[in-house]
Amino acid sequence: MNESSNRLPILAASIKTEHAECLAAMRQSLSHALAAGEMLMEAKSLVGHGEWLPWLADNCAIPKRTAQLYMRLAKHRELIELKSADVALLTIQAAVELIDRKPTLAERLDDIEAAILALEAELADCRSCKKELDPVTAALLIYEHSGMFIATSKLRDMTTALRQRLDLIDHETDIQIVERIPPLMERVLSAGLDVNSLSLVNLDALIEDSQQSDLRDAKAMVHEGSR
Fold first, then answer.
1. Is residue 37 within 8 Å of residue 1, measured between CB atoms?
2. 39 and 73 Cβ atoms separated by less than 8 Å
3. pLDDT of residue 183
4. For residues 119 and 133, what is the distance between their CA atoms, to the nearest angstrom?
5. Residue 227 is inside which H or E element, if any?
6. DSSP code for 89
7. What pLDDT digit, counting tens, does each position of 199-211 carry?
8. Is 63 helix (H, G, I), strand (E, B) or coil?
9. Residue 58 — left, alpha, or beta (φ > 0 → left; ψ -120 to 50 → alpha)?
10. How far apart are CA 224 and CA 227, in angstroms?
11. Which pLDDT value is given to residue 213?
12. Average pLDDT of the segment spanning 67-92
């Protein structure tokens, strides 16, 4: 009896230690999987067409499905980091579940609102640029920077995805979530109109500058020909 009593605390401590080590290893595995996935994607882009799987087998000793899993995790790193409170605490399986889980209506609206804020910030930067610089320089910087257009494209993709899942609205039981939709869509429309207006102003400035440049070139040719 005494021997059992003495042995049990030792076993309990060892079990706790092994369990903690197991959890730590599982959590660290996601970090390693993400790093491997990013390098696998880079390698795949460098290997010739049709040579990827032979290269993988000859050089990495990683099963095809495992490599695909690593690349899938790396491809969705941004989503994993966005949806997880702490990526360091995630296991590979938990990360896969985050990728596969379809976002709720509330989560989709949160993402749309974040995208609106990003576009509104880009528009504010563009307006500031136009105030501080001449129209042509401002237009060129705005088009070359393209932040406004990237943010617009991202917002458009999100709203399109929501329109394709109108069933989420029909099945939503929280009226406060549904009531968020009209004001959000008004902000989407307003931001879209601002983008169109700013784009037209920029285009007009570039066209006018091009016409003036052509006129200067024509005058220079006439002047040169009269000499």
1. no
2. no
3. 92
4. 21
5. none
6. G
7. 887 777 777 767 6
8. coil
9. alpha
10. 6
11. 60
12. 83
Contact 210, 163 (CB under 8 A): no
Contact (CB, 8 A) for 153 and 191: no
Summarize the confidence of residues 141-170 as an average pLDDT. 84
The answer to whether the CB of 31 falls within 8 A of the CB of 70 is no
Structural tokens at position 145: 């920077």
Angle of CA points 72, 67, 89, to nearest 5°: 55
Residues 6+ apart with CB under 8 A from 131: none
Provide φ and ψ at 50, rounded to 5°: 85, -5
Asked if residues 118 and 151 have their Cβ atoms less than 8 Å apart, the reply is yes
For residue 174, the 8-state DSSP code is -
The answer to whether the beta carbons of residues 80 and 98 sit under 8 Å apart is yes
DSSP annotation of 133: S
Give this prediction's pTM.
Answer: 0.52
Place of tokens 């079990």: 15
Q: Please report the pLDDT score of residue 223 as a whole number.
A: 43
CA distance 178 to 205: 42
Mean pLDDT, to the nearest integer, of 120-137? 84
- Mean pLDDT within 175-191: 91
